[in-house]
Design brief:
The protein has about 425 residues and is mainly α. It has 19 helices and no strands. The two termini are about 30 Å apart.
């Protein structure tokens, strides 16, 4: 059993296991940021907002997630209190927690107060996400562990989503917005403690020569066609308008699902995502990335089309659970591609850039989905989403995935020789 686990998660050093634990905790806290979403959506719905109106609210909260390259630049080149990552980590997790508790303790949950505080909480978590990803790329890419680390990160988010589904459904049913924010605000504090305990980082200072060299590398990479093709591919492959406020409106208004049952469905999706993340970890080390991406795009298109048959509790359980597996596989393959495409010496900046594209695609697609649902209904939305997902196949030949993977493998070999 131990040998099988070691093959699935080849974390053979103390440092690798320590970092994997830190990544898991940070991503769990990020997943718990979604705990108030179902309750907030219902509260805004009951105030008269349409599906597209609620989508606009959440579009505002996405702003911190689409300016992530700024956090990457800051942490890559401007050490704070002698640390490139740790000091920023502590400040960002503290901000996320304070914003959450401010919402929990507030008696005013007006639209704009709710929007700005929820966005501030997202800012803290987005900064933590960039820092965790920068460390993941720096340490995982040379060791060939980016796929494994990301599987653990997203398995952790899946566990958080499982908790969000069950607890969030109950809180939405009782409209307990204050309690939702109290619980969500606690987890950035856990990240704060874990960073203090688990992150080992040498002291650093601004090095003018090294900074100029790194910015030169950034300019060269920014002119590299492959990087922008990867960014465009990630945007298009992840653009699926089906999910978001429109989907919750359909479950609530058309299917008449109880909010607690909707929460259970979200948890089932998370269970599927956990299974998919566990499957991806060994696959990422055995199957060429191009083959994984082609296969997972097909699975994602088929999984999206299955929502045409989403008409009652039984079909909902089956389809949501299966899509949890399918959705995380395409997601992890795209993130693995992003990690392997990052240039050395500016990993935080460029991975943050690609993740901003990813997050922007996610939120923009849900915003478009809200408008399509209001204008066309659910079944046309499913069909449009399926076609958009399948169109990503046409872009695969433009992405030099084999070349990107070979370059990442060469970096790993160079580190091995140097060691």
């Amino acid at each position: 059993m131990r040998e099988r686990l070691a093959r699935l998660l080849p974390l053979h050093t103390v440092e690798a296991r320590r970092l994997a634990t830190l990544f898991a905790v940070v991503y769990f806290a990020q997943g718990m940021w979604n705990l108030p979403v179902q309750t907030m959506t219902l509260v805004l719905k009951e105030r008269g907002l349409s599906s597209s109106g609620v989508a606009d609210f959440f579009l505002l909260s996405t702003i911190p997630w689409v300016i992530k390259p700024l956090y990457g630049l800051l942490s890559d080149f401007v050490p704070l209190f002698g640390r490139r990552r740790q000091s920023y980590f502590l400040l960002a997790s503290a901000l996320a927690s304070l914003a959450g508790f401010a919402m929990a303790l507030s008696t005013d949950h007006g639209y704009w107060r709710l929007a700005w505080l929820y966005t501030a909480m997202g800012f803290g978590l987005a900064f933590c996400d960039v820092l965790a990803d920068a460390i993941m790329v720096e340490t995982g890419k040379p060791r060939g562990l980016t796929g494994v680390f990301q599987s653990m990160q997203w398995a952790s988010i899946s566990v958080a989503t499982l908790a969000v589904g069950v607890l969030g459904g109950h809180l939405a049913h009782t409209r307990s917005l204050h309690l939702a924010f109290v619980v969500a605000a606690c987890f950035p504090l856990v990240s704060f403690a874990m960073v203090l305990a688990f992150l080992r980082e040498p002291t650093s200072r601004i090095d003018g020569a090294a900074t100029r060299e790194a910015f030169q590398a950034i300019r060269q990479a920014a002119r590299h066609r492959d990087l922008w093709i990867v960014a465009g591919f990630i945007f298009c492959s992840n653009f699926n308008p089906l999910f978001g406020p429109a989907f919750l409106y359909f479950q609530t208004d058309v299917l008449r699902f109880d909010q607690r049952f909707i929460g259970v469905l979200a948890s089932l999706t998370a269970v599927g995502s956990f299974v998919g993340a566990a499957v991806y970890a060994p696959l990422s080390r055995r199957v060429p990335l191009r083959r994984l991406i082609v296969f997972t795009i097909g699975l994602s298109a088929a999984g999206t089309l299955a929502y045409v048959f989403y008409r009652g509790p039984v079909s909902a359980v089956v389809i949501d659970a299966l899509y949890g597996v399918v959705g995380i596989l395409i997601q992890l393959s795209l993130l693995d591609l992003a990690a392997k495409a990052c240039p050395k010496r500016a990993e935080g900046t460029f991975f943050a850039l690609l993740m901003s594209v990813y997050n922007g695609s996610t939120q923009l697609s849900t915003n478009v989905g809200g408008r399509l649902y209001d204008g066309l209904g659910f079944t046309p939305l499913v069909l449009i989403s399926t076609v958009l997902t399948a169109l990503a196949w046409l872009l695969v030949p433009l992405v030099k995935i084999e070349r990107i993977e070979a370059a990442a493998r060469a970096d790993a070999d160079a580190l091995t020789i140097k060691a």
